Structures are given as C-alpha cells and as structure tokens.
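Researcher: Hi, I'm a grad student and pretty new to this. My advisor asked me to get structures for two proteins we've been looking at. I'm not sure of the right format, so I'll just paste the first sequence and hope you can take it from there.
Model: That works fine. Here's the first sequence with its structure tokens right after it:
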Amino acid sequence: MGDPSRPTVGEYMTRDVATVELDDTVAEVAKRIAESDDFSGFPVTDGRRVEGFVSARDLLLAADHEPMFRVMSDDILVAHPDMAVQDAARVILRSGIQKLPVVDDAGHLVGIISNADVIRSHIERATPDKVDKLGRTLENIHDITSHEDHRQVTLSDLTPTQTTVYADELEGRVYELERGLAEPLVVIDNDGDLLLADGHHRVKAAARLGIEEMDAYVIVLDEPVELGMAETAADSDLERIDDIEVVDYGRHPLVETTQRLQDEE
C-alpha cells in the first residue's frame, strides 16, 4: 500500500464514478440530480477522458436543451492517484468544491475523491494509534503478548463494556454510518470472547440501521486473562448490544460544558 503515513488519493478515491457525456442535455442531467441524494454535479467525459465538470449551479443558468459541452466548466481541477490525500484536501478546502475527479497520466478518469473520503482517511489513520496504545497497556498490565487483526466482526458476537450511550451522539453516528464515515470498532479478542472496547455509539447506530457486521481493529490476546472490563460487563448484565441503554434525557458531558460556556457569555 505504500507509506502508511502518506495515504494517497488512489487508496481512498471512489472508483465507480457516475458521469455525463458531452451531448447530454441540461434537462437530462438535472433530472438525474433531482432524483438522487448523492449527486450535486458530474464529471463530463468523452469516452474515458475528462473534458469538464458540470454542477447543479451550472444547470440553473442554462436552458433545458443545452448540451453539456456548452454548459460545463472546462477549466477544472483534477487529482492524480499518486497524489497525497493531504494535498487533495488542501485543494478541496481552498477551492470550495466537494469532489475532485481523479485522472491517470493519459487524462482518463479513474475515480473521484470527495471531502468525505478525506475525512475517512484521517479517521483510519487515527484509529491504529488508539489500538496500539490499548494493546501495549493490556500487555503491561497482564504481562502477556498480543497481536492486532483488522477484520469484519459480527455485532451479535460482541459483548459491550459500556452501559449507556447518549441519544444526541447516537444520531451523529447514524449520520456517519449512512455516509460511510464511521471509524472501525476496537475489539479485544480474549480466547474467543469478543469485548467491545471502543465504538458503543457506532454499534447502537448500526443496530438501528440493520447492519450486522462492521469493520474492526481486533486486539488478539495470545493467552486468556481475566479482564476488568469483562467483569464490569458481567456485573452490569451486559451480554449484547440491546443491553446498552440509550440516555435521551441528557447530553454528552462535553456538549453540556460547551453549551454552559455559551450561556455564560
């Protein structure tokens, strides 16, 4: 994959790109945008070659019969698969656009990278650090060794270790999951017992959306130990995700603190 500290556009771009052609009319493209929640514009292609980009704003200023080659912006910004995601993020931020077409050396469209993809790249880089620290802590406390695994886990196999989640934060996790932005779970595999160490709001959101499996970083303990978080789960009668209570009468403490500071101003 290359240098993990320098993720590339090619690693995070969407390869299946919706496009329009040079002769498509304003009316046809506007209908596609109106009928979908996913698109606010399209790359305009001639075969595989990118010739321009058309946005919803471009369509508003044109007559229904106008073809894309008359309406599109042909002075467009594009990225290359080998470009660093961080550099693509700067372009997206400074230009005010939401998506960058990605082209190869021949100018052929090979993908598209969005601000959501950029966010995902930062999430996935942050999580391994969290997993590494937790793994080293478990090794030091219990005098054992462990190794990390990155895999899909079945949510019904997980034992939660947190009794409650906050309703307002849960809504945020639902929003992220629907857009593919949620970071992987952190799970401890203790001789086959899968303890959920991080991601309780995410699994509750997944349950609401009918998702049965999620991406997870798994810390596999090389020998079974008695974990305090497992004892806490047992004492709290936590056996499955349904046992996690959603607290809908209060906000997350950090949100409360921020709101209180605003009220005091």
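Researcher: Oh nice, that was easy. Here's the second one.
Model: And its structure:
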Amino acid sequence: MSRLTVPKTYKLYIGGAFPRSESGRVREVLGADGEFLANAAVASRKDARDAVVAARGGHAKWAGATAYNRGQVLYRIAEVLEGRRAQFVEEIRAQQGVSAAVAGAQVDEAIDRWVWYAGWTDKYSQVAGGANPVAGPFFNLSVPEPTGLVAVVAPQEDALLGLVSAIAPILVSGNSVVVLPSEAYPLSAISLAEVLATSDVPAGVVNILTGPVADVAPWLASHADVNALDLAGAGAYDWPAFEAAAADTLKRVVRPGGPGAVAPSLERILAFTEMKTVWHTQSLR
C-alpha cells in the first residue's frame, strides 16, 4: 500500500520557538520543476515586532558570554549542520533546481563558513583593539563591543550560503539578529533554525522571518529598538527607502555590497561592533 505524502509547513523562528505567523498566512513554495514542496509562513508587522523583542531579550546573555564560549557554539552549529547535510542538499536541489553536486558544494561552504567565523570569536578584538599612546600617566585602551540588535536582509540568490554569510559574522562579537532570508528559497532558512535551536544558541539570539522582504523590511528599518541594519541582500529592493527609514533612529546601515560583501572577512565582523575606550590612571609609585 502506498503512503500519502505528509506536507510540511515551515514556521517562523522567534525567541527559540517555531510559531505560526500572527496573521496565519502561509504561501506555497514550489520547486524549480513547479512541484509543491511545502508551505512557508508569511511574516507580518506584528511578527517583526515580536522578533525584535525576542532578539533584545536574548542579546544580554549572548553578549555576556565569553569569546571562547561563543566560538564553541558557532562551531557546534557547523557540527550539527554537517550531520544534517543530506537534508540540506536535497532541499537546495529541489528549491533551486541545481544538481546534487552544486547543492552539496553550497552546504559544504556554509559549514566551512561557520567554522571560519568560530575561529575569530576570541581573536578579532586583539586585531581591532589596542593600547593608545596618550600624554600623561594613563593607560588608554580601545576594545570592540557588539553594536546590539542587527536586522538583516540576507542575500537572496541562494537558499543557505548567503544566509549563513550574513548572520555568522554578526554573531561573532555578541550581537543578536532578526533576519529576512531568501524570499524565493525560504525552506533552508527554517531548517537552519532547527540546527540553531539544537546548537546551544540562546533563545532570541537569531530570529528568522520568512515572507516578502518588501513587506517586513520597512518595519525593521524604522524600529527604534534595532541598532543596525544590514542590507547585504536588499539590492533588488527599494533599499534607499529602508536606509531613509533607518536614519530616523540613527541606525548604523551597511548598504548592499558593503564591507566585504558576503565573503568571509574581518570587515564583516567589525561592521557591527563599536569601539569602547577606557582610561585608567597609572600608579605613580
């Protein structure tokens, strides 16, 4: 007797949980061959607000973790993703219509990118910070700290690699993230959320909202509790309008094709850090 296919509904990822969209809306995701793959939630303005609240709540624990611990967690993401490699290869192959070899190469590069950024968690501050020469009996030290809560429009051209390339460097320094993944290929984003949920990433540190970017991005750009806006994947949208909305709350904005684009780089890490300078009196004895 043949079995019935069990269609999956991919939900949002907010605060470490997988809620349905507040609106209850979903859309059909079709494969490259036009066949039905799954339903994906369509995020609303209310979902965006909930994600910002969750990200703000998760930020303190993540930013307060040691650099070594953050590196362990990012490496754990790579381990879990490696264990589910076959699932991601099949999802990418079905969504993008590419060969298994091309899909596998994308997954492998995404895994390697997590490992690469995991290695930077306890090193970037030594490169970016330092002791400053000053006149007088003082120590003057500059240390990079996380910007805070970053809203991200992930690269849209692929299902997984662009998403990982955008969020991994933001997490290195201790930021929390609300991300809009590929609108055309959303399924791998929620599968990645399942990986994050089982990789010791504190709840709320990463929040993923699927659906039309143009509907949700303006609300994140204008939200007063979002500290920075990464428009890495917004090139095909009205990103100057997003930037203008962000200006009202003095957000840091990285434009499409900004620091390092989405290639692995120290610039991507430092794009979402702030420099804290501390003065300390030297002993006169």
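Researcher: Is there anything I should tell my advisor about the second?
Model: You could mention this: The chain has one domain: 9-281.
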